[in-house]
Amino acid sequence: MTSIGTCLAQGSARLAAAGISGARKEARLLLAQATGFALETLIGYPERPVDDRPKYERLLARRAAREPLSHLLGRREFWSLEFTVTRDTLDPRADSETVIEAALARIADRSAALRIADLGTGTGCLLAALLSMLPYASGLAVDRDPAAAAIAAHNFVALGFGGRAQTMVGDWGEALSGKFDLVVANPPYIPSGEIGGLQPEVSVYEPRRALDGGRDGLSALRRVIAGLPALLAAGGTAVVEFGDGQGVAVAGLIVDAGLCVVARRRDLAGRDRCVVCESR
Question: Residue 255: what are its φ and ψ, rounded to 5°?
Answer without folding.
Answer: -65, -40
